[in-house]
Automatic annotation (TrEMBL):
Residue intervals of the Alanyl-transfer RNA synthetases family profile domain: 1-257
Superkingdom of this protein's organism: Eukaryota
Cofactor(s) in the UniProt record: Zn(2+)
Phylogenetic placement of the source organism: Eukaryota, Metazoa, Ecdysozoa, Arthropoda, Crustacea
Biological function: Functions in trans to edit the amino acid moiety from incorrectly charged tRNA(Ala).
This protein's name: Alanyl-transfer RNA synthetases family profile domain-containing protein
GO molecular function terms attached to this record: alanine-tRNA ligase activity; ATP binding; metal ion binding; nucleic acid binding; Ser-tRNA(Ala) deacylase activity
Segment forming the signal sequence: none
Entry-linked InterPro entries: Ala-tRNA-synth_IIc_core, Alanyl-tRNA_Editing_Enzymes, Thr/Ala-tRNA-synth_IIc_edit, Transl_B-barrel_sf, tRNA_SAD
Amino acid sequence: YKDTVIMVFYCQRHCYEKKYSTTVVACKPAKQEIIVNGKKKKIDCYETTFEDTVMFPEGGGQPDDRGSVDGISVLRVLRRGGEAVHYLEKPLEVGAVVTQQIDWKRRHDHMQQHSAQHLITAVADTMYGYATRSWYLGESVSYIELDTEKIPKEEVELLEEAVNQRIRDATPVHIVEYDALDPKLKEIRTRGLPEDIVGPVRVVTIENVDTNMCCGTHVHNLADLQAIKLLYTEKGKSNKTLLYFVAGARVLRVCRKC
């Protein structure tokens, strides 16, 4: 644990910010694997770090942000210890003050799906005792792996009604930072901290619903989710059930296809 290195970035403290000015700390040639036309391909790029960042690095089940830095495209953003490593198409001069700009549509979508997952997970546990073992944020549909062999259709319908009621109630979402050694963290539900944890730990609370450690970006009020649609279930591994869902703008896209 090194208190000289932070894990909580500007993007996590200011989830709704779209632009941020910062200083280039390091930049060097690198290779990074990205998806090109549906296939993985290693390309030449520039590994770049900044004093801080408005771009979320991949982690906690949430994909990374994309965007640009002074007009240069950002191909990937990954976390390495207390650093957010950005892979850019072109180099930047070390010491230069630059402006980062995120792809807001992508960021907001990820915020909606991630906060929806926290909500569904908490309510499924409260109503039926179904613990969440993992989750996956997909490009169009996401799923939660629940620790149960099956979920009856009527339970899915009641769960959907319950989570949407929380949205209609405009339930606030709060984020608080704790020191990684704070004993209060032992009282908070979590799957465990990563071994390379550095700096503060974020705790996300959906008021009167759930409190959980999380590094992701979230909405500040469940009203921003608009709605959640539980689509279907699928048999998972080891007697688990996968519950597929969409939230926010994705619900509208599903409706348009109907």
